[in-house]
Design a protein that fits this description.
The protein has helices spanning about 10-25, 40-50, 55-75, 110, 115-120, 140-145, 155-160, 165-195, 205-220, 225-230, 235-245, 270, 295-310, 325-335; strands spanning about 1-10, 30-40, 100, 105, 195-200, 250-255, 260-265, 280-285, 315-320, 335-345, 350-360. It is an alpha+beta fold.
């Protein structure tokens, strides 16, 4: 193997060397061993020369990646760079599966380049253009290294090893979507832990009426006539609920001091409607519109089912409008099966309803 000697004595020589990196990494220098004599920028030049002398593609990529991480870590080794508050990052790291109270454990070079605005406010951060060793990457890998967030070192290296930017791009997008799904599930579990289910109290009535009215206007817009939705009177419904809570079972869902949902249920035969085999009913289920998809409805339904199971009830029904697709999807997911249909009257107009029947003898309730 022939030796390529390079002498760097001045800043001009250094700039020329950096410009020629794109040439030195080419295949026609594959059989050249680089030796550089320099007294300036030794900490930067040494890893670049070492990388040039690594001829195996994957080994070179891995060395460039790890050397870049090392250079960044050395700059911040005595800094609390991420500045976690209450063991949590308030920047983009909150979107990452690998976040810990002590910072990031992934050794992800993309994240270490600190595009985070919160870090940039505190430090003069190392940026992509500051790491000349990255010029030894191909154009494809330079694009990847600026966009491969929320991934482990091993995943990023696999993306860099690939010859296809399309393949790497698909992997990045897939991991991002997967991460957001997992984080969403974690958030819902945490949210559900904050939800308290308790019997209704008289002071809850205005809140549940507001939830019902806003729920109707949101869920039934375009299904039930606008004039009926507009005519819903808050005071009248509060008065009605004052009477209802003394006659039927009510529970509410709260987060902190806020009522975010409620349900009403019954196991009195005369109130169920005379359907054979049905011995209990979830009469109403409402969740505050801006609190939907946080597990509140699920927890309310589970609580009602548990109450019925304690009373040895076997089949529960809940009715919803036939055109209310989100509600139908939810009840189906919870294990309900459409078994009944009927007409119901709102404001002098008839609407189709479907009845979801739940088997309470199942060992597990979703």
């Amino acid at each position: 193997m022939k030796t390529k000697e390079i002498s760097i004595k001045t800043e001009q020589d250094y700039k020329k060397f950096i410009k020629r990196l794109n040439l030195y990494k080419r295949i026609f220098y594959y059989n050249r061993y680089f030796e550089v004599n320099t007294a300036i920028h030794q900490n930067e030049i040494k890893p670049m020369v070492t990388a040039l002398n690594i001829k195996h593609r994957k080994d070179r990529i891995r060395y460039i990646y790890d050397s870049s991480c090392h250079l960044i870590d050395k700059k911040y080794e005595r800094c609390d760079t991420c500045g976690f508050v209450n063991n949590k990052c308030n920047g983009c790291c909150r979107r990452c599966l690998y976040q810990t109270p002590n910072g990031c454990r992934t050794k992800n070079l993309t994240c270490k380049l600190f595009d985070c605005s919160e870090v940039r406010e505190r430090y003069d951060v190392v940026q992509y253009r500051d790491l000349n060793i990255l010029k030894l990457f191909s154009l494809k890998n330079r694009i990847i290294i600026q966009s491969d967030y929320f991934s482990s070192r091993e995943d990023v290296l696999k993306d860099l090893y690939s010859y296809s930017i399309l393949y790497s791009g698909i992997r990045i997008i897939y991991r991002f979507i997967k991460t957001q799904i997992i984080l969403g599930k974690r958030k819902r579990r945490k949210d559900m832990q904050k939800i308290i289910i308790r019997p209704i109290e008289r002071q809850d009535i205005p809140a549940i009426v507001d939830i019902q009215i806003s729920g109707w206007k949101t869920a039934y817009k375009g299904i039930i006539a606008d004039d009926f939705l507009a005519s819903m009177n808050r005071e009248e419904r509060i008065a009605k609920r004052e009477k209802d809570i003394s006659e039927k079972d009510f529970i509410v869902a709260t987060i902190g001091d806020e009522v975010v949902g409620f349900s009403r249920y019954t196991d009195y035969p005369d109130q169920i409607g005379g359907f054979p085999g049905i011995d209990c009913e979830l009469c109403a289920l409402y969740v505050k519109p801006d609190q939907k998809y946080h597990g509140i409805g699920t927890k309310l339904v589970q609580s009602v089912m548990n109450e019925f199971q304690k009373k040895h009830k076997t089949r529960m029904i809940i009715w919803c409008l036939k055109e209310n697709e989100p509600a139908k999807t939810f009840y189906h997911k919870m294990g309900g099966i459409i078994s009944k249909e009927k007409k119901t009257d709102f404001g002098g107009r008839l609407y189709d309803e479907v009845g979801f029947v739940f088997d309470l003898n199942r060992k597990e309730i979703v």
